[in-house]
Write a structure and sequence with these properties.
The complex is a heterodimer of chains A (498) and B (185).
Chain A lengths: L1 H13 L7 H9 L10 E3 H4 L1 H4 L2 H22 L7 H10 L4 H28 L13 H24 L4 H14 L6 H9 L6 H32 L6 H10 L6 E2 L15 E2 L10 E3 H26 L24 H7 L3 H22 L13 H27 L2 H4 L6 H6 L2 H20 L2 H26 L21
Helix pairs in contact in A: 5-7, 5-13, 6-7, 7-8, 7-13, 8-9, 8-11, 8-15, 9-10, 14-15, 14-20, 16-19, 16-20, 19-20
Chain B lengths: L1 H16 L7 H26 L12 E5 L7 E5 L4 E6 L2 E6 L10 E13 L2 E10 L6 E2 L5 E3 L8 E6 L6 E9 L5 E2 L1
Antiparallel strand pairs in B: 1-10, 2-3, 3-4, 4-9, 4-11, 5-6, 6-7, 7-8, 9-10
Classes of the chains: A mainly alpha (498), B alpha+beta (185).
Keywords (chain A): Electron transport, Heme, Iron, Membrane, Metal-binding, Transmembrane, Transmembrane helix, Transport
Subcellular location (chain A): Membrane
Membrane topology (chain A): Multi-pass membrane protein
């Protein structure tokens, strides 16, 4: 009796209407969003762990963790210069589980940045940005959406970095926003628009807060939804391209019974004989539910568990309250910008504006520069691809270390002591050399192999290793006054005042 | 009636062959709608964006008193809250900005053991030390000239005067002066 009442209430809440016929019921299923989150069947190749390492899924789960913890943190945080820092102190010492929320939010933010990069590396190295020849898919465009998501993730992380309003936050944002000022002509205007004034203060905090909590998450959510919808529309992971090729080579199969709801009253009866032209069949695929659903749930569970586990171990640092009068020594940007900061140390214009612009544009253009369609979905395409990948890694290692050594041992200003023009040093510095060396390698490999894919692999691998080395240098090897220290060297105790 | 119908068909063919310059009434209305929408978006968007550019800044003043000249010690004093260095050489005063010209960190003064005569860019003066920036390792001579690291310009020097009302030193950080500027009190 009670049970039927509960069921009745439940149906009232969840059903907008009661289907009167089979056709209406069929329409209901077809129109159901949740039932179509995943395709009916999933290729065994896409399901395989090494095809994707589920990096995109993990990234999205981490974003959800950030959203949930972020909303709770919004209740506990006051975006004012007088109180922001003390809300952080309260979170750490006075709010029940405040420390856990903060650590979880912080570690997830770092993980998300790292995961977005790893996801990009995976998609590039498996050639998953290619349209394919059988069904021209929009994967090149989806890659562009992906690069946009990378930029949005970095912006979200950067705007969140200021909110604790401690020394680390204040000076990282000082350095970061001054990089914007290095843009020729309009730089100072951009900086002042970001800051809402000429110095970092209350207007800056509220700007970054609104960007971080409202505008950027909304935009990121929209683009991420588009990104994932496109994966469905493009037929799943790029490795499915191999299934498509096999399907094309197969003998056409005899017509067989197909799913019942696809006819929806167009034809009578519950089954229809169709010639199934689709790529996926009993041999190369499995039903998405349970095979994909369970895997995604497992990945979700593991991601949340690992994030919580990490936040139990990794402390979220909080330095002294922001003090515009005292610059900590050394003052560093967030870790993922330290590779840039290292290059900004050679020239603010080259390292902070030109190189990042070229990198972002270069990344976006990859699918349009490399239009070869072989080996889609395979790591490094094939044997020669692996060879060029290794070559790129080694080349990147040597050139990046070379440019670093040059920056340390023979700074440009000591090579050309008589030149005062800043423009000269903006053009002639190790960051420019690295850029030219990588661009040069692209064209040499292109000429040697006559393959845009191999040239792209070599350049991308060089880019990965350069990113890693420069980030490591900026993070671990730079001490007070941005001087170079080996990991085994202790930093000198530096006089902080006169 | 017949002619009207055939006209319509001809016009519709025109739509597909020359998109963008559609001469029909429908095409014109479409373009008009798009133009009005664009103007409307601009008109609506301008106040939204303009409101985010502040007209009043609640920031510290650019011109401020820093105290009586005789209260400053011989040599260099760092005024933390203003981020500037005040140099005193008996009755000569001058002020050098503590803001690195690279990315805005506060530079540190690294004093020499003994002051030394130095000539930098044809300007001879008695150097007490030099400036080091903690962020990216820029270095500046004692008069402000950048000589190492990424700093693109010398440190700024600010105008100094004596307040007529109180006799205190007044710094004007909105007025830059050349590095040989000295206020004699």
């Amino acid at each position: 009796m009670i049970l039927s009442k509960i069921t009745g209430v439940w149906q009232k809440l969840t059903w907008s209407w009661r289907p009167e016929s089979n056709r209406e019921a069929g329409s209901g299923i077809v129109a159901n969003f949740l039932l179509h989150w995943f395709p009916n069947r999933i290729s065994l190749r896409s399901l395989a762990f090494p095809a994707s390492f589920y990096l995109g899924t993990i990234t999205f789960v981490v974003f959800l963790v950030l959203t949930v913890t972020g909303v709770i943190l919004m209740f506990l945080y006051v975006p004012s210069v007088e109180r922001a820092y003390w809300s952080l102190k309260d979170l750490d010492h006075a709010v029940s589980f405040g420390w856990l929320l903060r650590r979880l939010h912080r570690i997830s933010a770092h993980l998300m940045v790292a995961l977005v990069f790893l996801h990009m590396f995976r998609v590039f190295l498996t050639g998953s940005y290619k349209a394919g020849e059988i069904v021209k898919s929009a994967r090149p465009f989806n890659w562009v959406l992906g690069v946009t998501l990378l930029v949005l993730t970095l912006l979200l992380s950067f705007t969140g970095y200021l909110l604790p309003w401690d020394q680390l936050a204040f000076w990282a944002i000082t350095v970061g926003t001054n990089i914007a000022a290095a843009v020729p002509y309009v730089g100072e205007t951009i900086r002042q628009f970001l800051l809402g004034g000429t110095i970092i203060g209350q207007p800056t905090l509220i700007r970054f807060y609104v960007l971080h909590c409202a505008l950027l998450p909304l935009v990121l959510f929209g683009v991420a939804a588009w990104h994932m919808w496109r994966i469905r529309k493009d037929g799943g992971l790029a490795i499915v391209e191999q299934d498509r090729q096999e399907a094309l080579a197969r003998e056409p199969q005899a017509p067989k019974k197909s799913k019942t709801y696809s006819v929806l009253g167009i034809a009578s009866g519950t089954t229809v004989q169709v010639n199934d032209p689709t790529t996926l069949n009993e041999e190369n695929s499995v039903p998405s539910t349970p095979f994909l659903t369970v895997r995604i749930l497992l990945v979700t569970l593991l991601t949340v568990a690992v994030s919580i586990g990490l936040s139990l171990v990794v402390h979220a640092p909080l330095e002294a309250a922001a003090n515009p009068e005292v610059t900590p020594n050394p003052a560093k940007a967030p870790w993922y910008f330290l590779g840039l900061q290292e290059m900004v140390g050679y020239s603010a214009l080259m390292g902070g504006v030109i190189v990042p612009t070229i990198v972002i544009l270069g990344l976006m253009l990859i699918p349009f520069l490399d239009r070869e369609q072989k080996g889609i979905g395979f790591w490094f395409t094939d044997g020669p691809g692996r060879k060029w990948g290794v070559f790129g890694f080694v080349y990147g290692l040597v050139t990046t270390c070379g440019c670093l050594a040059m920056a340390l041992l023979a700074p440009m200003r000591s090579i050309f002591p008589t030149i005062e023009s800043q423009f000269f040093f903006d053009l002639v510095n190790p960051a420019t050399f690295l850029l030219l060396l990588f661009a040069g390698m692209y064209f040499v490999v292109l000429k040697k192999t006559a393959s845009t894919r191999y040239a792209a692999i070599a350049t991308f691998c060089a880019f990965i290793i350069a990113f890693v080395i420069l980030t490591y240098t900026g993070t671990a090897l730079r001490g007070p006054n941005w001087d170079f220290f080996w990991p085994w060297q202790a930093w000198p105790v530096h006089p902080t005042a006169l | 009636m017949r002619t009207v119908a055939s006209n319509t068909i001809q016009n519709e063919t025109g739509v597909s062959s020359e998109a963008g310059t559609d001469p029909t009434r429908r095409g014109f209305l479409g373009r008009l709608t798009a133009a009005v929408a664009a103007v409307g978006a601009l008109v609506a968007g301008w106040p939204l964006l303009r409101s985010l550019v502040p007209n009043v800044l609640y920031e510290p003043p650019k011109r401020f008193r820093i105290g009586a000249p005789e209260n400053f010690q011989e040599g260099v004093t760092f005024l933390e809250e203003h981020r500037l260095f005040l140099f005193r050489d008996s009755s000569n005063y001058h002020a050098v900005s503590g803001i690195c010209t690279h990315l805005g960190c506060t530079v540190k003064f690294s004093p020499f053991t003994l002051p030394q005569e130095e000539t930098v860019r044809e300007f001879t003066y008695r150097a007490l030390g030099e400036f080091h920036c903690p962020c990216h390792g820029s270095r500046f001579r004692g008069e402000g000239t950048n000589y190492a690291g990424p700093a693109p310009r010398p440190l700024k020097c600010f105008h100094l005067e004596v307040s007529r009302a109180t006799g205190e030193l007044v710094v004007d950080v909105a007025t830059e002066v050349s590095r040989d500027f000295r206020l004699v009190v």
